[in-house]
Structures are given as structure tokens and as C-alpha cells.
Design goal:
The complex is a heterodimer. By secondary structure, chain A is of the alpha/beta class. Helix content of chain A is about 25%, strand content about 20%. In chain A, helix 7 crosses helix 12. The longest helix of chain A is centred in the middle third of the chain and has 17 residues. Classes of the chains: A alpha/beta, B alpha/beta.
Chain lengths: ~525, ~425
């Protein structure tokens, strides 16, 4: 360990730490553009210069390694003056078009000017003209005039995707980052470029001109589009349900998690957010009869039907269709209620088809919790429709993927023969018309629970978004059902939250004992 | 005493041929070094000789060699900086044109001392003919067994290559030179790590200027004490002063370090041209702060010039007369550095261009009262704050010209 003093504050850090990170540990933020923790320090923006006692020149915080007894000043007059100088240079040729720039509100240039700049402009020359709104790729727009040449984009494409679509061209004041002639940035990680650009030089086509970033609330969640389980931030308009704005969710950003996704997410996850608002089920739908059904009545009614079969020794006539978008907790409750309690043996999975994996984050599985289902003890073999539908009186369907497993006419014939068919789904589908009751449920972004990723990491999450529909999370419904079944009321009564369920899982299943974070 | 170390063969016919060079007792230093001296002894001798870098920074060569880590399981490289890009400088081209074997000898001894088996001469792209001459000289040296495998039966191997640059000033900066030599864009690297530990192809590397290495053979033959006697105890040997501008006899003059600037201009270079009057001198290549006519009574060595708030740099003396307008000098300086900035780091990239535009505006008669203060302020925001020395090289002459010739510059402003 090395002891140093930053702004009169004693700090103890590990040997080999940079001044920048030591300051960060001490809660002192040092302004920077080119430094990004995913890459080696570049030292080119010159914004992180700090004063170190005994060294005549200002030194880079991002690349200087701490030495025992070092005294660092991050707010001295010389440092503040140097920062102001760098800002003045960067803003000299900048178009100052914040009112129409998507980065406004998230922009380091803007923030640092407020913090360290606030000078009167001395620039009375003609600004350099540069390329504007050129297309970098399907998701990216480039505005050279706003660029600070931090080269984060170039380094990302060199070091992370290794696709090298961008480079630095020309030199001096004409130096610019750009794509090589004749190619576009069309890899599955291109969206990260707009996210790591510290200014408004690279903006996202999808987000462009849609809203201002300060109107957006932020919630954290897990990306459900493959089994990697990347950590994400969902940015949404919090007043969506009260004011007429065109979208609720506006964008998804990556959330750093060193054990799962690092700093990045793929474009499939980043741009695949429309499902959160499109084609959602709002209300409970009852197809047989005109009865209105309230959520409170669902569990008692179903419990009664299930108990009737149980006491007639006909539990084999109960069937379930699950999917691996269900959380660990939900799958566990299904296992307890239907597997252990009711002794149902007709439990199958209907999942979205597999896709192609890449060698970075994206996996073949297009659902987030296959590992979790396996750990809980489910058999994930492909479903056999004949076995599922034969001699079945009650069919409980989670999710709408069953619709892809057979043609609608065939499904209708089968489902019509079953006495009670219940569908729990977050989205509308052709199945809605084929079952007796459709129950709206929230998406992963709107509920709490945990998912087990492809590497066996169990990640818990809370609702990132509020669900304003008449929905009930599956785990809550299953807890109610468990209680209503009556055979083990006390056991299900303890599950007042998903955390409580996961805690119990840790006691019963070794895998979750080890992984419970 | 007017000892010639580097230029004594400049006037000898065909001295660039190895036969003539050998006739003039060439390659004796190599023979002495590999046959009679250990690498440690050579290093000691060069350190004691106070041989300081002739490229401009004046860093002691022996100390630099000593930084190369011992016992590393990687090849080591020597890169000879023959980029000679500093405006006003034309000394290395003379050494390489008229005495290439002296440089090769220096390269062999240095490589033997540090344990290097591959050396590169990175030569300015414009020096095409000189590059060809070096290649001929290398071929000759290989034929005679001074280069290649088992040099003079010592068991020491060395291959020497010539690599031509593509015309960027910044590639004379040692780490940009390495990048360029590796085939990349010539951008200076972030230091540390220093090239001595991580240099060419991530291996330990020594980088020295042509003139620096060309001094090594004489140190080996005559000893460190002799070398210090020729120059100064802390700054040994001679310098090739390249005098240009309004003097009667512009050219290269090899003189002991510590010679008087006034004598160089008025005695050796013949004084000012007929009808011309001295106004200012840039004493060490364009990046050295300017000296006024009253300030030239000064010794030309690294420390004396630092004391005078200028620098010896590449010892290129640019003599400016009273008919030359300082706004034109300033325009030239700012145009050059704005053009040659690699564009990597903010202050150099934008600051130099900004200053260039303001200077041009002043030159066109549109200057304002506050412009000169603003130029100094901007130059100070470049000075000491850039990734490589190019920022300082630009800021220093600009600040000195504005400060020392303020009145003249103000006269260009209409208002």
C-alpha cells in the first residue's frame, strides 16, 4: 500500500494505482476526456493535469503512478488555470450548438465549462469548418465540429471489437477521426461508440432529436435478450403515463459490471427496447363468458380447480408451459407448487429460437435464464405437443412462445379440447384468442427477481420501470396460488418479496447458496 | 585550440569512400573498442566525456545508454535520429554526406557498448541522395567486415539499416520516430515508459542524434579528458554551428562548445552582409527563444544559453537583420508549428492554429490592442502542457518574439 496526500486528504491506495484512480477512491473527481477505464491512458486531452509537489511541470493524473508520500493538488490555481486553458482551446472551434445537440445534459464539455470554464471568450478568429452529420453506420451520426479527438471511438474499435473501422486522418488542427473510405461501422457493438463519446460528436441515430436527456429517469436492470445477462440502465420518460409523450423508454445504456459485461452491451440489447412499450397487454381478458375477472380472484379460482383434480387423483391432467424468461424465483415457485406439491409431470418449456453468438458478449440463447432453470432442476428438452395436450384439463401457459411451435389452427384444435387454459403474458399474441383467460404480467424491466447468466452468475434486480398496466408479476401470482392451494400455507406466506424467495432457495438448492449475492 | 572532430575530412576528396576513410586512420576507434575495451569501460569513458545530445535536448549520451536495462530477454535497438527537421539546421547532412563512416563507426561502438545487434538510421525523407550514400557506405563497411557478423573477429554482430521518413517534423521527436519506424502514424508516445526500457517494437532502445554518435569514435581514441578539454568539463567536444541568414559566409562551422556567439557571427561567418544591420539571432534552431542584437555576447553551450533564457538546441544560428520584419518571422514560426503539430493533444493542436490565425490577422493590419497579450496567454497555455516537446518548441519562440519585439509588432496595428 502507498500513502499519498491529495488536496490535503490522506489517501492509501495499492501500489501501481494512478493518481486519477487514487483521487477517485478519495471521492475527488478529476476532469478528463480521453481517459476511459477500459483503455490504457492516452494522455492527449490534457484535461486531467494536476500539480505534484516537487515536480515543476503539471503531470497527467490518468497516467502518473502514485509514489509514497506524494502530495497532489487537484484544485490549485495552476491546475484550474490549465483546465480553463484546455477548455478554451476545445471550445474555440466548437460550434456551441448545445440547443440542438443530443449530448447536451450528458456532455463533459458542457459540465466542465460550468465547473472550470466560465471565462469570457477571447476567440476572434474564423472557426475551422468540419464535416457535419455524416453517417458512420446504421446507428451512428458523426459531427466533426464537436469532436475533441479523445480517440475513444478509435480505440474501442481497435481494442474491443477489433474491427478497426475508424482511424485518425490528417494532422494538426485538421486531424479528425473518421471511418476508413468505403466502410461503415456495422458491428454488433457500434452503439457503444455513442455512449463512450464524451461529447456530441458521435450520436445515436435512434435517439437523435427524440427528447432531451434531462427529461429522462434512469433505472437499472438486466438485459433479457440473451443469456449473458448484461447490466443495463434504462432511460425513460417518467411521466409517460400522465403526459402525451410519444415513447416511454428512450434508450438503453450499458452499466459497468466487471464480472459480466464490463463496460459494454451489444446492439441487440441496446436497440431491442421497443418491446417494453409495443404490443403490451393492458387488461385481463376473459374469452369464455362475459365475466369480468379481477386479479384477486384469479388465484382462488385456479387453486380450486387444481385442488379438485388433485383430490380426484387426476394431477396428471395438469400441464404447464414455461419459458426461460421467467426469473429464478418464479421457476422455483413453479417447481414447488406444481412439481413437489401437485406432482405434475407435464411441464415443458417454449422459448424463442436460438440465434448466432459472437465472440464478445452475445450468446446463442435468446433468453436470460436457461442456466437458472437447469439449476432449479427442470428438464429443458424440446417440448412434445402431443404429450402436453393429451388428457389435459388445466393448461397454464407462461409467455407466448407456444404460438411459434405449431400453426394456429392446430393449436386451436388442441386448446379447445382443454377445459381450462390460462395464459400469463406481457405481450399480445395470437394465443390470446385461443385460451380462456389472458393475464397481463410485467416484463423483466418492470419486476424484481434474479436471473442466472450463461456463466452461472446469479444477478438480482429491482424494477427499472413502473408498470402502469393491470399486471401482476408471476412470482406474486404463484405465491398467492401456493397459499390458496392450502396444503402448505405457512411455507408460501413467508414469501413477501423476491429476496425472501431467493433466500429460501439458498437453503434448498446448493447452487443458489453459493451464488446468492 | 581549434580541434576538428567531425568536419576534419569535409574538405578531403572522396572521404565518404571507405578506402579514403581508412587511409585517414578510419575505423581505428572501432578496432580499439572491440579489441581492447569492455562495454563497461566504453560507457564509463563516454559518461566522463560529458557528451551531451546534439539533437537539441542536450541529454548526456552516456547516461541515456546506462538507462537500458541489463539482462533483459529481448533484443535491443539503436535508432539514429537523422530526421534533422528543426528549421535552420543543416549539420547532420554534412556529416552524413562527407563523413558517413564516422557516423557508422560511432554506431558500431555504441551498439557494442549497449549490446545492440540491430541499428536503424531514420533519415529525413528529403535527404534521398544522402540516404543512398549511407547505404553505399554501409555496404562498404560490411564488405570490409566492420558490419555484419563477427565484426573484426570479436564475436560481435551488428546489422545497420537506413529508413527514410516521410516528411513530418514531429518524427524527429524520438517516440514519434519509433512509431514511424514501426510503420505507424508518427505520433509521439506518452512517456513513461521511456524508450530505454520500452522503445522500438516494445524493446529497449537507444535513440541518438547523428552528430552525437559521430563524436563517439574520437572519445574512444583520445579519451574523455581530451574531449572535455576541447569543450567544457560539463559539456564536452565541439558543435557544428550552422549559420544562416544575413551573414557574409553562411555555412557550417565546427567550433568548440562554449565559443562566443558574437565571434561565430562576426568572425567565422564574416559578419553581416553589406549594408545589413543585426537585429536578432535565433541561436539553436527555430524553437529556441530569440536573442536581440544586444544579447549575443554569450557562450554557445547548453548551460549558458539556458541562463540567457534561450537554448542551444541544434546549434543552428539564424541571423536576422533590421530589414526583416518580426511579424514575418512570427508568421513563419506560427505557420510552421501549426502545420507540423501532429494533432494528438489539445493545446498544441488548437492553440498553435489559433495563434497562427491571430498573427496573420495582425500582419494583414487587422490587429487589435489585446492580441499580443492574448498570444502570450495562449502560448503559456501550450507551454509545458503538451504530450511532447513540440508544444514547447512552438510556444518558446512565440513568447520571446512577442516580448522582445512588442513595440515593433504593435506598429503593425492600425488602431
Amino acid at each position: 500500500m502507498v500513502k499519498i496526500i491529495i488536496d490535503d486528504k490522506p489517501v492509501e491506495v495499492e501500489e501501481g494505482t494512478t493518481v486519477f484512480n487514487a483521487a477517485k477512491d478519495a471521492g475527488i473527481a478529476i476532469p478528463h476526456f480521453c481517459y476511459h477505464p477500459a483503455f490504457a491512458p492516452e494522455g492527449t486531452c490534457r484535461m486531467c493535469l494536476v500539480e505534484i509537489e516537487g515536480i515543476p511541470k503539471l503531470e497527467l493524473a490518468c497516467s502518473t503512478i502514485v509514489r509514497e508520500g506524494m502530495k497532489v493538488f487537484t484544485q490549485s490555481d495552476r491546475v484550474v488555470e490549465a483546465r480553463r486553458g484546455v477548455l478554451e482551446f476545445l471550445l474555440a472551434d466548437h460550434p456551441l450548438d448545445c440547443p440542438i445537440c443530443d449530448q447536451a445534459g450528458d456532455c463533459k464539455l458542457q459540465d466542465y465549462y460550468e465547473e472550470y470554464g466560465l471565462y469570457d471568450s477571447h476567440f476572434s478568429e474564423v472557426k475551422e469548418k468540419r464535416g457535419k452529420k455524416s453517417k458512420l453506420g446504421p446507428h451512428l451520426i458523426h459531427d466533426q465540429e464537436r469532436c475533441v479527438l479523445c480517440r475513444r471511438c478509435v480505440r474501442f474499435l481497435q481494442e474491443v471489437t477489433k474491427t478497426q473501422e475508424m482511424g485518425v486522418f490528417e494532422r494538426g488542427v485538421h486531424a479528425e477521426v473518421n471511418i476508413h473510405e468505403g466502410i461503415l461501422i456495422d458491428n454488433n457493438y457500434s452503439g457503444n461508440l455513442a455512449e463512450i463519446c464524451p461529447v456530441g460528436a458521435i450520436t445515436d441515430t435512434d435517439f437523435r432529436f427524440k427528447t432531451r436527456s434531462w427529461f429522462l429517469g434512469k433505472g437499472t436492470s438486466i438485459c433479457p435478450h440473451c443469456s449473458r445477462g448484461c447490466n443495463i440502465t434504462i432511460e425513460y420518460n417518467a411521466f409517460f403515463h400522465r403526459f402525451p409523450v410519444p415513447q416511454r423508454v428512450y434508450r438503453i445504456k450499458s452499466l459497468y459490471n466487471p464480472n459480466v459485461n464490463g463496460y459494454w452491451i451489444c446492439d441487440l440489447g441496446r436497440y431491442g427496447y421497443r418491446y417494453l412499450d409495443d404490443d403490451r397487454l393492458d387488461e385481463i381478458r376473459v374469452n369464455s363468458g362475459n365475466d369480468k375477472l379481477a386479479w384477486q380472484a384469479v388465484a382462488p379460482l385456479l387453486a380450486e380447480k387444481l385442488n379438485r383434480l388433485r383430490y380426484m387423483n387426476r394431477a396428471s391432467r395438469i400441464a404447464l408451459v414455461l419459458n426461460t424468461w421467467l426469473t429464478n424465483e418464479e421457476l422455483f415457485l413453479v417447481k414447488k407448487i406444481f412439481g413437489d406439491d401437485l406432482k405434475t409431470n407435464k411441464i415443458v418449456f417454449a422459448d424463442p429460437p436460438q440465434g448466432k453468438a459472437d465472440d464478445l458478449l452475445l450468446t446463442e440463447d435468446r433468453s436470460p435464464n436457461r442456466k437458472g432453470a437447469e439449476a432449479i432442476g427442470f428438464d429443458l428438452n424440446p417440448l412434445d405437443l402431443d404429450v402436453l395436450f393429451e388428457k389435459t384439463d388445466i393448461l397454464l401457459i407462461f409467455g407466448s412462445y407456444l404460438k411459434d411451435k405449431a400453426n394456429p389452427a392446430e393449436l386451436k384444435t388442441h386448446l379447445d379440447k382443454i377445459e381450462t387454459t390460462i395464459l400469463l403474458s406481457s405481450h399480445k399474441s395470437e394465443l390470446d384468442a385461443l385460451v380462456d383467460v389472458v393475464l397481463p404480467v410485467p416484463t423483466i424491466a418492470e419486476k424484481s427477481g434474479s436471473l442466472t447468466n450463461c456463466e452461472g452468475v446469479v444477478q438480482t434486480f429491482s424494477p427499472a420501470l413502473e408498470d402502469h398496466r393491470n399486471s401482476c408479476p408471476e412470482w406474486q401470482f404463484l405465491v398467492d396460488l401456493g397459499k390458496e392451494l392450502g396444503s402448505n400455507f405457512k411455507y408460501y406466506s413467508q414469501f413477501t418479496s423476491t429476496q425472501a424467495i431467493l433466500k429460501e432457495m439458498g437453503k434448498e438448492i446448493v447452487f443458489f447458496e453459493m451464488n446468492n449475492d | 585550440m581549434n580541434e576538428k572532430i567531425l568536419s576534419k575530412l569535409f574538405d578531403v576528396e572522396q572521404a565518404h569512400k571507405i578506402d579514403v576513410y581508412l587511409e585517414k586512420k578510419g575505423y581505428q576507434a572501432v578496432r580499439k573498442a572491440v579489441e581492447k575495451m569492455t562495454p563497461e569501460l566504453i560507457l564509463e569513458e563516454v559518461k566522463n566525456a560529458s557528451l551531451r545530445g546534439r539533437g537539441g535536448a542536450g541529454f548526456p549520451a552516456g547516461v541515456k545508454w546506462g538507462f537500458v536495462p541489463k539482462g533483459v530477454d529481448k533484443p535491443k535497438y539503436l535508432c539514429v535520429n537523422a530526421d534533422e527537421g528543426e528549421p535552420g539546421t543543416f549539420k547532420d547532412k554534412y556529416i552524413m554526406s562527407y563523413n558517413p563512416h564516422l557516423l557508422i563507426e560511432g554506431i558500431i561502438i555504441t551498439s557494442y557498448c549497449v549490446g545492440i545487434h540491430k541499428a536503424y538510421i531514420y533519415i529525413r525523407g528529403e535527404y534521398e541522395n544522402i540516404a543512398l550514400r549511407l547505404e553505399e557506405a554501409i555496404a562498404e563497411a560490411e564488405d570490409k567486415g566492420y558490419l555484419g557478423k563477427n565484426i573484426l573477429n570479436s564475436g560481435f554482430d551488428l546489422d545497420l539499416f537506413v529508413h527514410r521518413g516521410a516528411g513530418a517534423y514531429v518524427c524527429g521527436e524520438e517516440t514519434a520516430l519509433l512509431e514511424s519506424l514501426e510503420g505507424k502514424r508518427g505520433n509521439p508516445r506518452l512517456k513513461p515508459p521511456f524508450p530505454a526500457s520500452i522503445g522500438l517494437f516494445n524493446c529497449p532502445t537507444v535513440i541518438n542524434n547523428v552528430e552525437t554518435l559521430s563524436n563517439v569514435p574520437s572519445i574512444i581514441l583520445n579519451g574523455a579528458d581530451w574531449f572535455c578539454q576541447v569543450g567544457l568539463p560539463k559539456d564536452g567536444g565541439t558543435r557544428i554551428f550552422g549559420v544562416s541568414g544575413m551573414v557574409k559566409k553562411p555555412g557550417v562551422y565546427e567550433l568548440p562548445i562554449g565559443s562566443s556567439l558574437k565571434e561565430i557571427i562576426f568572425d567565422h561567418a564574416g559578419g553581416m552582409k553589406e549594408g545589413k544591420e543585426l537585429k536578432a539571432v535565433i541561436p539553436g534552431g527555430m524553437s529556441a527563444p530569440v536573442l536581440t542584437a544586444d544579447e549575443i555576447d554569450i557562450k554557445m553551450d547548453f548551460d549558458s544559453l539556458v541562463e540567457a533564457k534561450s537554448m542551444l538546441g541544434s546549434a543552428a544560428i539564424i541571423v536576422i537583420d533590421t530589414d526583416t520584419s518580426m511579424i514575418d518571422v512570427l508568421r513563419l514560426v506560427t505557420k510552421f508549428y501549426a502545420h507540423e503539430s501532429c494533432g494528438q493533444c489539445t493545446p498544441c493542436r488548437i492553440g498553435n492554429n489559433w495563434i497562427r490565425k491571430t498573427v496573420n490577422r495582425i500582419a494583414s493590419g487587422e490587429g487589435r490592442k489585446e492580441d499580443l497579450d492574448n498570444i502570450i496567454r495562449l502560448a503559456n497555455n501550450i507551454l509545458g502542457k503538451t504530450l511532447c516537446p513540440l508544444g514547447d518548441a512552438a510556444a518558446m519562440p512565440i513568447i520571446s518574439i512577442v516580448q522582445k519585439f512588442r513595440q515593433e509588432l504593435e506598429s503593425y496595428m492600425r488602431n
